[in-house]
Amino acid sequence: MSQMEQTLVIIKPDAVKRQLVGELIQIYEKKGLIIEDMSYGIASLEALEAHYAEHKGKSFYDNLLSFMQSGPSLVMALSGKDAIQVVRKLNGATQFLEAECGSIRGQYALDVTQNVVHGSDSPESAAREIAIWFKS
Ligand code: DAT
Ligand code: MG
Asked: Can you give the pLDDT at residue 25?
């Protein structure tokens, strides 16, 4: 059964630097997803620590946080039918070599950390992440 969902997307600093913002938004919009909210700027350490709490202690964690603060990023809440899985498919696998060629990472990523976009991985993650970035 399809469900209306919200998910959290981040267009990461590497993609902003490469001026891919418009192109990436177009991919999500053309798919039919709706932009519910957005926020642009250099992410705070507090938000990033909360967002990436599951990865704390891993070998790539410090590098990940410094990359995510290396420039502005665009954080968005998107909604639509099965939005969480739809965005994960559009984004492609975490490892760029495994990402399908037509996916965002398949087309634009050549690095496992600097991998262009983030998408929530489950309804629980989506709710948690949206609350972190869009405190109402
Ligand atoms: P995803 O972003 O596909 O949900 P994740 O949650 O496993 O992937 O990891 C979060 C981010 O951390 C990922 O986008 C890039 C970085 N990362 C993950 N695994 C990594 C690794 N083995 N080496 C370096 N960076 C990694
Ligand atoms: Mg993840």
From this structure: 98
